[in-house]
Amino acid sequence: MKTQFFICLALCGLGAGMARADFIAENPPTFYNGAEFPGAKGALTVSPENVAQMRFDFTGGGNYVEATFRLKQPRAVRHVTFAADKPRGYHFTVRVTDAQGQTFQKTAHHAAEGWATFRFDMENWTGFWGGPSDGVLAQPVRSFAILLENTKQPVATGVVLIKDVSLEEMSAEEAAAASGVKGAASTRYAVADFGAGDANTFERWGYGVANAELQKGVWRIDFAKHAEASLSHSLAILGAPEEFALSVEADAGAAGAELVLSIGSHFMTFTRSLGVIQPPARDGEKIAQAFRVPAPPAEGWSWHGGANDGKPQYPLRFSRLTVRRANAKPAPVTLRLSPLEAQTRIAPSKRLALRTRLLPNGEAPTALTGELKNLDDTAARACDLTVLLKNWDGAELATVKTNLAPVKPGQAQTFTLPLPALPKTAFVEAVSTVSTRDAPRVSGTWTSTWTERMADAGPGEMQPGSPWGMGIFLYRNGNDEGGHRNMERIAAAAQAAGVKWTREEFHWARIEPRKGAFDFAFYDKMVETAQRHGISVYALVAYWTPWTKPYEDEGFRDYCNALREMVRRYKHVIKHWEIYNEPNIFFWSGPRERYPALLKMAYDTVKAEDPDAQVLGCSTAGIDNKFIQMCLDAGAPFDALTIHPYRGALHEDSFTAELKAVREQVGGRPVWITEMGWPTIPGTVSERQQASLLARAYLSAVGSGACQNMSWYDFKNDGWNPYYNEENFGILQNDLAPKPAYRALAQVCRTFASGAPSLQSIPVPNTHTQLFVFRMGKGCAIWTDGAEVEVTIPNRQNAQNLMGEPARMALVTRDGMPGERFIFKVSADKPVFFPDFSPDAETLVLRAVATPKTIEF
Fold first, then answer.
1. Which one of 259, 317, 447, 568 is separated from 460 by 20 to 30 angstroms, measured CA to CA?
2. Can you name the residues that pair with 388 across neighbouring β-strands?
3. Any bridge partners for residue 417, and if so which?
4. Which of these, 1, 730, 536, 721, lies nearest to 311 by C-alpha position?
């Protein structure tokens, strides 16, 4: 559970039909100070107007305070609405406890102060724990909570006001489907058709076929050459699966072979045998056999990787189907695969799954391609499709409507929709909505984007003094002609964006597959490619080889022997060596206290070979002050601290304060952020939001003065599964089509190519909103921590939006302002860049802009 610091206001017991003004009066809250995280103080009272007043004081520490309401009758809840007033910089998080005692949470990223209305649903949770801990909310709800995250704001005391709480309940049918009872209103649909259907654009089977041939659902394996073959992928399994089913037709020679299914769950993989293929009933007949197995975490599944706790994290994904020869004859066989089906629990209102993409990739979009899945196994669905096209500033470009052909029960179909000619723009967003034409009404939405590539090759000179890095990960390509070609394309895209550093994993097992046998051919090519594109490499040396003894002294010596060879070979071109990755979590499965011993030995090894080299140490997931202090207390030497400060929301004030504090903790040594990012997955961070988060994170980190080098995880998506966060951190799609965050990166790196960085925070008059000004070289970038603000400057300047297009700027004359003045608007989502202008704070006139006060999440 990635709980940060919370003020928790637990609201439970909302009855259907209850007037909003009566709720708090009829359910008086009780106070709790979050004693499991000592230090918080506070009190809770209710005013005569039925407003809950939560006073908080975190000056002594603590994570949250809480007011709890007990629910007399659990309710099947669809939405909860409340009005609240909170201090600037704090964000609300909500928690819900379901019928099985499992608790869920997610955050409303709204930093502005003042009254606002919040409305949240029972989906897209970012964390869960307790009960079965399976990530599936089982209605009815027993309690829920409203939390205000303590984001370490300068003012640690204050009052939170809550009023007008209400809920919207589900229908009886929806409640049954979400009840958590096995089989309750569940449905069956095809997860994977193995290339046999018309969804090949989205399934993309080619890369995952090993030791075999797959064509339109026909799988050919030669058991005379291979003991097993596999089909690998990453396909989302929607809902909460209860059972998997697969039917197979086969030659008689396949009898005795075993089928094995692997299901992914975050970093963990579940595996079990589907069964052995049985001989046909009579000689000369084909084999026809059906396999059914219960879904994880039922008995019969083994698991490995990640948390390694056997607890699924949803949505699950199809990872691999393997056939082992076992007792089959060593001869060629043919298997005809039916679609893999999942019996899964999905609310009837959610049984349309839409996915779209704007095409082509490199020119103005001319078409929208998509896949529509009918997750209902009882009826075909005929749907209407509406597509709203917008530019970066939110202006409508066009609206397109069409009727889609009926989709068969439990099946999927693809479609292509031509688009009208659009005005020239660097960014197009397509908000697509489908809805059934007949009752019962079901709808689905998907947002896709198109982003223009950079017009030129970008700066090709090396700039080791630049702070701008990226996890380009050239090492993830193969050492063949295709891999080298792809590596070249990726490096060229990074150069075009102005990237000057890349974090590359020097995989020990790849470099030294056998003790003493080193192969640097691939890494020679990788380093040469990066440098040719003006990009410096810093090396992450990880993980363990199969032949060593991990976490033991012998393993440490083997690691350092390999490290010595790496430094010796590349010391003229690589001057920064990072020792292991995230040893404070499961990537280091040995005793945590052993890491400082490796760091000490590795430091001495690097310095002995190249005294000018820098050793990057700790490499923590998050800013793990306790782990860092353990390394310091153990006397582990390092030249720069590396951290991965992932977070759900970005608060510039607290983020920069954390960076300054950890730099002070390590005695003023440089701090490098070698990983940080937000994945784009439905219901959480959109591609538009990822772009603004990237810019704000880069500018605030480097502008803080505490971060010497900043890198994002990672440059391109690691797959095509849009529901799995680990495959969607990239700022390029898997085929290198840009997301808007790519142009945001280019706007940062190319606008601020040189100079001394600084960050200034300016209060907006009559509000608690902060305006941020990042300066570097001749230019600046301006944005806020949330609310939209109108900025007035003395004269017109070259202003650009995050996509590098001209920003809207208007001439205005106001009383008391002599001469011409120009105004523009900025917010957290829409920073403005001035490549050749850096105003003094005194010349800026700021005015808050009224914005809608309903926040849905």
1. 568
2. 399, 431
3. 368
4. 1
Is residue 820 very low, low, confident or very high in pLDDT (cuts 50, 70, 90)?
Answer: low
Mean pLDDT of 776-791: 91
pLDDT of residue 464: 95
pLDDT reading at 18 higher than 60: no
Helix (H) or strand (E) holding 10: strand 6-11
CB 506 within 8 A of CB 574: no
Could you tell me which of 208, 336, 216 has the C-alpha nearest to residue 262? Answer: 208
Amino acid at residue number 617: G
pLDDT at 848 over 60: yes
Kindly state the helix (H) or strand (E) to which residue 525 belongs, with its residue range: helix 521-532
Rg (CA), the chain: 28
Maximum Cα–Cα distance across the chain: 99
Contact 660, 712 (CB under 8 A): no
Among 110, 93, 88, residue whose Cα is nearest residue 155: 88
Residue identified by tokens 């394309």 is 489
Supply φ then ψ for residue 306, to 5 degrees. 55, -135
> Do the Cβ atoms of 748 and 804 come closer than 8 Å?
no
Which element (helix H / strand E) includes 560?
helix 553-570
- List, for residues 104-142, the tens digit of each pLDDT value: 988 887 777 778 898 988 887 888 888 877 777 888 988
- 3-state SS, 375-417, equals CCCCCCEEEEEEEEEECCCCCEEEEEEEEEEEECCCCEEEEEE
Q: Using DSSP, how many helices (H) and how many strands (E) does the chain show?
A: 12, 49
List, in order, residues 6 or more apart from 790 with CB less than 8 Å away. Answer: 823, 824, 825, 846, 847, 848, 849
Interatomic CA distance for residues 526 and 285, integer angstroms: 53
> CA torsion angle for 793, 798, 800, 804 (degrees, to 10)?
-170
pLDDT digits (tens, 9 = 90+) for 501-520: 999 999 999 999 999 999 99
Instruction: Please give the distance of CA 774 from its chain centroid, rounded to a whole number.
Output: 26
* % helix, strand, coil for the chain, step of 5: 20, 40, 45
Tokens representing 640 are: 């720069």
